[in-house]
Amino acid sequence: MEIIIQRTAEAATNVAAQIIARLLREKPEAVLGLATGSTPLLLYRKLITMKLDWRKVTTFNLDEYIGLPPTHPQSYHSFMWKNLFQHVNITKKNVHIPDGLAKDIPKFCARYEKQIRAAGGIDLQVLGIGTEGHIGFNEPTSSLVSRTRIKTLALQTRKDNARFFGSEQQVPHHCITMGIGTIMEARQNLLLAFGKGKAHAIAEAVEGPVSSLNPASVLQMHSTVKVFLDAGAASLLKQKDYYHSVWDNKPAWQQF
Ligand code: PGA
């Protein structure tokens, strides 16, 4: 894991955006795994301003609420089109987001996995982290080898996401999420976390034991993970000085 701590979320996001921009320039037909929520908003804003060519890019989103039609303002379909896709030249048929209205959910999930494989696998996966350590909607105690499937949202997640819906009661109970095994097969993972509210989850994920109680901790077992943090999200890390010194002494060949 490479832990990149910047003073602000904007600064951390800008570094992450450079990595994605470079991938898209070097591999125009790249396959991206994308995330929703407050965290990647700055990233998507930044990528839009970079005027990249998305025509041949394929995307797979991590998750979607079950029961919300794509047109629902809080569906992740709406989120992605509003905050990224409508502003870039992506080809609509290359966009994949789990179908919250799928009639046969296990069949849909198996097809989603097959589509990822058929696209050649995910080159780069963007991840946020829940306050209890989820990645995608893989809540604590999720199997660390799980595949795309239905999950029941944790009580904490429904509380956290109530801010988007107006009340906790309106937050769906279920979702379709890529599994942890699916995420672990991405060639590269970029995890972003901002604000003190994420500090505990990040400390556990980065420096704690690998445990399904903090699903993001499994990323310690992945060969290529970069974690982008602002000062707040990094505030509980014990090895902060080391992470800063890695960044400050980065050899030129390793620059993004
Ligand atoms: P947030 O959610 O970006 O809205 O904090 C992150 C997540 O749940 O993965």
Features:
256 residues, alpha/beta, seven-stranded parallel sheet, three-stranded antiparallel sheet, 8 helices, 10 strands, 32% helix, globular, binds 2-phosphoglycolic acid
Summarize this entry quickly:
Helices cover 32% and strands 16% of the residues. The protein has 256 residues and is an alpha/beta fold. 2-phosphoglycolic acid binds at residues 37-39, 128-130.
Walk me through the structure.
The chain is built from eight helices and ten strands. The protein has helices at residues 9-26, 41-49, 76-83, 105-118, 155-165, 180-184, 199-207, 240-248, and strands at residues 2-5, 31-34, 58-61, 63-65, 95-96, 124-127, 149-152, 174-177, 188-193, 225-229. The strands form two sheets. A seven-stranded parallel β-sheet has the order 1-10-9-6-2-3-5, sandwiched between helices. Strands 4-8-7 form a three-stranded antiparallel β-sheet. Strand 9 (188-193), helix 7 (199-207) and strand 10 form a beta-alpha-beta unit. The longest helix is centred in the first third of the chain and has 18 residues, at 9-26. Bound molecules: 2-phosphoglycolic acid (PGA). Residues 37-39, 128-130 line the site of 2-phosphoglycolic acid.
